[in-house]
Amino acid sequence: MRSHIHIKGVKLWMLCAVMVIGVAITFCTTKITSVEEPSTAVIGETINVKLTVDFTAVINLDPPYLANYVVAILAPKGWKIAENTAITYTSNKGNGKMRLLDPTRLEPTQANNGLTWPQSLKSKFGIGGNLVDDVEWVAFESETQYPFANGDNLQAVVNIQMKVGADNNTTLTRLGYVVCDSKDGILVGVGTTGVAYASYFGGCLTVGGGTTGDVLNFCDPQLASVDPPKAVDNDLLTFKFDSNVQSTLLDGNDDVHLCIDATITDTGSGATHTVQVCDGSEKTKLKKISAGKYGLTIWPQGFFGLTETEVITRMSYYITNNTGAIKVGYQNTAAPFTYKFKCE
Amino acid sequence: MKKLNKLKILAAALPFLLWASCRVDKVVPPKEPIKDIVGSWGVVKATRNGVDLTTTFDFSKFKVNFGADSKYTLVNRVPFLVAKDGSYSTDDPLYPFQITLTPGTSPAVVTGFEYPLVNGKRQIKLIFNVGCNINSYTYTLQKDK
Known about the structure:
Chain A is mainly beta.
């Protein structure tokens, strides 16, 4: 039996090429064309952020599909933006509101690895422009689904209203935004046309007026810091000293130590006392991590030898040389750095 | 004539060969061993919120001793799932997915339990927090020789 299919070599190559290009450009392209966000705010204020989004489905081989628009925001954990954010949008496909995307739902591109939307966003975008890992990704999705078809273009304006500073701390942070659709997620295809999301990381936002006395500065490198920023005295705490941030009296000194005062409360009697560890020993020595950077991880309960009924409420500390004669404090002054134990 | 004899022998052997070829060998699967965690375990890897602390904090003196009497003891304590000695149990001796530690009279603590074989050595992987649930620790324990 003779075949009636005749494909010449050149046509076969052309067919293959078209198929390859088609597969390569299967995904949507998304752009955040402009962002309006404030640079200052005060605790409890509701700030407005406006994202202008250009969302195009390019040569989608499997159209049409229904999907929700997704907007994810990176913000300090203490702001609890999942509870304190309202998002609306206007678009050429329709206007509507957004709701919190279930944080346990798996993100499409990382579903095989079991990563949820917040986990996948953190895995891909980290903590954005922040220097301290006390921020979280929270995803929201449109209440309405829209059909995506080949060549569709969505022009949308997203209005985010976010109440800032729920933890009452004066904070400097860099917010981040990711826009995508719920079916493609944060997919990267082949080439720039195959990227199904857009991201934007903002400038430093200063939220003032905190009454806790703490300043959380995630924007600027700190002379000294403690990781994690929120903890109990049973956590492992890593003290870091970065002598590259500014010149101090400890310049040229590799043998740097912690000098700590801990305020300890007996939960039985309510009595409070202070214990100082400042002996310039191996116990207090910060190990060199890299040029000019030092770190020491301690377990406060063991470090201060607490009894079962004792808890540490706060610590004040200096970075010193091994004799304790040279002391470097908060912002390179004579005042100590402070750390309060709190979990929220 | 010799050729005919050979054929006869072959014909006689054929039924036996057919029977032998069709016989089903009974393969007995190896019995799943009981996951024995009795012994002294030390930390070989520790992370806090994904940050590796293994070399930045001295875990070398810390041991968890799981006894054959279902009791455990902590030696040179560090931040851990529990703070006191007590009793332990797993949800299944053959296929354990959870471990329960009951420190004295305090409430029991249950956590996910992985028991991988790494480089020929059993390890226990535990994920927990030590009082502040935003800080997550993962300890990988390995039994001392």
